[in-house]
Write a structure and sequence with these properties.
2 copies of one chain form a homodimer. By secondary structure, chain A is of the alpha/beta class. In chain A, 38% of the residues lie in helices and 14% in strands. In chain A, strands 4-12-11-10-7-5-6 form a 7-stranded mixed β-sheet, with helices on both faces.
């Protein structure tokens, strides 16, 4: 089966695309289009490689085996020579597409080579370039109000250490401030994992949320049973996340009532957990700006403003998990910028699109002593170098503007498809910001069939939640790419 | 203060060093020697950079600010132009010294560049090169009996996921095998972090052990209260680690009795925790081949053989944490190879010197379904590329042989110093394998003073435990470097 596509019918577009397509920075991307040359996907080479791989590493989850040397921009090539327009981008973790020339150039520099092969224990022997690197990478995108950064290696590691910082802060306040010493009882009892040194404290998270898979991160994760079953968990409380009606602007009143009910529950849980009991006092609330893995669930700025207010009133740390939303996909660098907060979150966690992971935090959350938030590597300066180039390109090429422009084309098109195919249960609840979008199918089987149909026609897409398709293109996804995607989606939907 | 040193008095050496020094692969290392050009360490430039750094990242733990572009082989340069012989090597995490030519060459290759800038979600879209890479890196050093690898990003992440694999295996056995489905009760209850879906199971670890700092890893860590205080912990049991008398060969009988007492306690804990109670059933025992952070505590092959036997008899997973010991420092690639086990450990965790992290495991520990041990990146293929070159160099340059040869010089010298300065409380309990060595001072203050004195004379060294100095040189540390170190250590001890 060789599938070819009419390019850019323009039926979905409101923009002049000539400019966008002529200024592609990728030398090869212009020659690419979604093109499947094997009878089925994954093709025979992918399958053979996968069989070998699964003999030594558990890779049953693989979509197909990719050829990164042949991928370019928004197109990913596979081992069989198939070319896919990639709207999923490695689970939302590639900001500039494949083989961006600026990253190729940066990776060839002496600075990269030296940094790559001399990975330091940053907390012991940071490099003399490191201060400048911090300022040119992380600190350039530090969320307003957060003056400190703790680089780490993964999103889960960021979450785990953010929790630790919150617990330390909470206990420090109980002791009466940073200059108060630990008691002997604290120091002795923690060695046996017992209170008061290992206190019964909790983190409040929301139904259908996802915050990672290491064991504390997994304890707050509530998206899917398969992630959690068989694993011991901290018995921490959960509040309902508002499940809103879309489009949000048509259901403002109902949605406000839903959000208010959830907020009341948050406040009730925090107030009822002030002493040891089933849960123990809540030290922090953690929330995603958009529940991504849980099925792209949105809430309004009002909801998040209220969470900020409640946590502040109750003396609880407010952690915003921007692991999936951070890095520009929503049309702002941080999704929480859409909320227009008076007072910033206390902690913002990041990873994925930034390539470097960690968390930003307010100065007062700095532990009272060194070595308390610590590990061998404390992140990877190589990935900070990469982040520096990523930010350079986002600024130079005005990629947030591109995301917003493309987003308009994308969502106009999706809403048009919703009108056409909504009755078939193929697309409803179109929602999103920037190009960080999603829609639901009527059931999981339909969603899975649609993803497979897209892949057969040369589009790589990802699912989430029960029956959602989530769009996570790179920041270099233009209106032209959106049109190609919409055309193929249209074909799939007319066929299913 | 400009300190210069007599090189190679030969008083400690039993080897002809001419060969070792002439074949250095580092173009610059021959011109290097420990040389302090500032009045104090850290020098003024280090201090200024640190002040800036601490404004944005908590780096109070820093020894000095390094200049990696000027470092070579076993010598690390700092921001002030001081040169240190590095016996600590970024907390034991640099295998081939600084700027090894083979790594420079590898890092300049197109393969490195492509891999660096197209970091995949390995579980979704692995690269077509990935199978070959797995076989040429991880699988080339897979411990005997362990046919599977799970690449991850850090040592803590390896530990957390090894625990998850053990818990899944334990619960699967409770259900009656991999084909038995989860019950509805399991799937529902785990979403509320409650049993039976989130079961009360535990991991047994040892007193004074260290396994990492994310919250499950921290729950088994027992080395220092400062790591643990204020952080909620899983209430898991602890067994006494044998605190042996050194030298081991002089106290075999007493040490055996100590080990037997500890082993009896391990067996007693496992047997007493077979149903939910304070701890819950023990799913796994985790142990370091040498307790490193806890103060370089050794145990005999008999102890570890017995642990393997007991865990097998009791149906408990045996996890060996080789995060610090793995990669050749003990004179074998894996420290557990020194034990001559009949049946291999079930899981071996690694990170640090391998640059790539993860765990090896027995096939029967593969989860019954995909997505259960999973995250976005599942390690970093770039670091696997680095590991491939590291293994190439270890093999080509016969570095394990070098480690063992250097170790003999190192330990002969340390024992000689113990005879000379033991009475001053400066050095006792000299112990180690390969170049993975340590000695104790009489108290923490003396240890800290000795580390500072070494640094002032151009040697970077690291502490551990209460009052221990641990030696963690790179695998390219030759007898010549050992002699330089011993000479300076001698000077320090004669002065203190």
């Amino acid at each position: 089966m060789r599938v070819t596509h009419r390019f850019a019918s323009r039926s979905y577009s409101t923009l002049n695309l000539a400019k966008a397509s002529s200024k592609s920075v990728f030398p090869n991307e212009r020659y690419f289009k979604p093109e499947i040359v094997t009878g089925e996907v994954p093709g025979p080479k992918s399958k053979e490689l996968l069989q070998n791989l699964n003999n030594v590493q558990d890779l049953r989850t693989t979509h197909f085996v990719s050829d990164y040397s042949k991928s370019s921009g928004n197109y990913i090539a596979d081992a069989d020579g198939n070319i896919y327009l990639d709207t999923f981008m490695q689970i939302s973790s590639i900001p500039l597409g494949y083989n961006h020339p600026a990253l190729i150039e940066a990776a060839k520099s002496e600075e990269w080579v030296t940094t790559a092969i001399n990975r330091p224990a940053v907390g012991i022997n940071p490099s003399s370039d490191y201060y400048k690197l911090l300022m040119d990478s992380y600190m350039r995108v530090a969320p307003k109000g957060l003056t400190q950064v703790q680089p780490l290696s993964t999103g889960s590691e960021a979450i785990e250490n953010a929790f630790k910082a919150a617990f330390m802060w909470y206990q420090q306040n109980q002791r009466g401030g940073p200059t108060q010493p630990f008691s002997k009882e604290d120091l002795d009892s923690c060695m046996a994992n017992s209170a008061p040194g290992s206190p019964q404290l909790s983190i409040l998270s929301f139904s259908t949320c996802f915050h990672g898979r290491s064991m504390a991160a997994l304890s707050v994760t509530r998206s899917k049973a398969l992630h959690k079953v068989d694993i011991p968990a901290f018995d921490w409380p959960v509040a309902p996340f508002p499940h809103l009606k879309y489009p949000l602007d048509q259901y403002e009143k109902e949605n406000r009532a839903t959000e208010d009910a959830c907020l009341a529950e948050v406040e009730k849980i925090i107030k009822s957990c002030t002493k040891p009991g089933r849960y123990g006092p809540v030290a922090a609330v953690v929330v995603e700006p958009v529940q991504a893995e849980g099925g792209d669930r949105h809430a309004s700025p009002y909801f998040f403003q209220s969470l900020r207010r409640i946590t502040k009133e109750q003396g609880v740390i407010f952690i915003v998990d921007e692991v999936q939303t951070g890095g520009g996909g929503t049309g702002k660098f941080w999704a929480h910028e859409h909320w227009d907060l008076q007072d910033s979150p206390d902690i913002v966690c990041f990873s994925k699109k930034l390539q470097a992971a960690g968390f930003f935090y307010k100065k007062e959350l700095t532990p009272n002593m060194g070595y308390r938030i610590f590990n061998t590597w404390l992140g990877d300066p190589l990935r900070a170098l990469q982040l520096r180039t990523i930010i350079d390109v986002i600024e130079k090429d005005d990629l947030l503007k591109n995301v917003n422009e493309t987003g308009r084309v994308l969502f106009d098109g999706l809403r048009q498809l919703e009108k056409t195919y909504g009755h078939k249960g193929l697309i409803k609840n179109v929602r999103g910001k920037g190009c960080f979008g999603a829609f639901d199918c009527k059931d999981p089987a339909t969603r899975d069939a649609l993803i497979m149909e897209l892949r057969r026609r040369g589009v790589e897409a990802g699912g989430s939640g029960e029956s959602t398709i989530r769009l996570r293109p790179a920041l270099v996804f233009t209106s032209k790419h959106a049109e190609i995607f919409l055309n193929i989606l249209n074909e799939c939907m007319s066929k299913l």
